[in-house]
Amino acid sequence: MILIRKILLIPLLQVALGESLQEVFGYLGENITLPSGADPSWNLSKVQWSIFSNNTLIATYHNEKANIDRIDQYQGRLSLNTSSGDLAIHNLNAKDAMVYNVDVINTEKKSTKNKIELTVKQHLQKPTIETHTWVPRESPKSGCLVKVQCSSLDEGVQFSWYIEPLSVTTLNTSLPDGKSALLLAFLNNTEHTVKVTCNTSRNIDTASSVVTSKCEDEKTTNQRWSETRNRYCAVIVIGAFMGNVLLISIIHVFGEQKKTLHEKSQLDIKASRNPSDQTIKIDD
């Protein structure tokens, strides 16, 4: 009796082991291949990919014919490998995240069933970098201090830095908000330029942004300020000049109109005082 029970349990165990759940990760807008789990040595005769609890078919292969346009959600976005049974989904979107079922049968009537859980993620966005440079007025040639702040719109990321040249003295820390990090770089008179790369990471996904900062002396800083100030002054002078020209033009136009109205008024008054001037003479 015990032997009979063991014999009956063997097929059930094979089915349970065959329907293992495999996790696969993909990213929005990219492509992902869902593995069928079939033995590479098999010659497949039938493949069925389905979703939902009612096993809605989305891609099939039978009688040497493949059908990958079964439902609108995946229209034009599926590719079925009839040799391996693997299913590729192109241009992933958030709705594609679900559990997929696959049934595979070979020409020798051997079969396997698997479940693949697809998770769709979004790539990390590039971090934003802001820099500020301080040059001491007392000794501008002694170097400067560069403050670099790196921020990310993504949650739960880790920050790291890469500095070039490596000899630059730096101090870095994460800010309390958890979404940004701060780096201080001390540049001397020989290391007047620094290239800073801010990296963000979460699991296996990474993103980075690069900025280059120059240690400028006080003379260069004052020169730039002077150039900026001169540009603003030029804009103000030109604006004032154009405003005056516009005002003079408006006054001139109104003056001409007023003069014309005055002349017309004088003619009307003269005509009313000498009505005989308007008498039409008829020759005898």
From TrEMBL:
<dbReference type="InterPro" id="IPR013783">
    <property type="entry name" value="Ig-like_fold"/>
</dbReference>
<keyword id="KW-0732">Signal</keyword>
<keyword id="KW-0472">Membrane</keyword>
<dbReference type="GO" id="GO:0016020">
    <property type="term" value="C:membrane"/>
</dbReference>
<keyword id="KW-1133">Transmembrane helix</keyword>
<dbReference type="GO" id="GO:0005911">
    <property type="term" value="C:cell-cell junction"/>
</dbReference>
<protein>
    <recommendedName>
        <fullName>Ig-like domain-containing protein</fullName>
    </recommendedName>
</protein>
<feature type="transmembrane region" description="Helical">
    <location>
        <begin position="234"/>
        <end position="255"/>
    </location>
</feature>
<feature type="domain" description="Ig-like">
    <location>
        <begin position="127"/>
        <end position="212"/>
    </location>
</feature>
<feature type="signal peptide">
    <location>
        <begin position="1"/>
        <end position="18"/>
    </location>
</feature>
<dbReference type="InterPro" id="IPR015631">
    <property type="entry name" value="CD2/SLAM_rcpt"/>
</dbReference>
<dbReference type="Pfam" id="PF07686">
    <property type="entry name" value="V-set"/>
</dbReference>
<dbReference type="InterPro" id="IPR036179">
    <property type="entry name" value="Ig-like_dom_sf"/>
</dbReference>
<keyword id="KW-0325">Glycoprotein</keyword>
<dbReference type="InterPro" id="IPR013106">
    <property type="entry name" value="Ig_V-set"/>
</dbReference>
<keyword id="KW-0812">Transmembrane</keyword>
<dbReference type="InterPro" id="IPR007110">
    <property type="entry name" value="Ig-like_dom"/>
</dbReference>
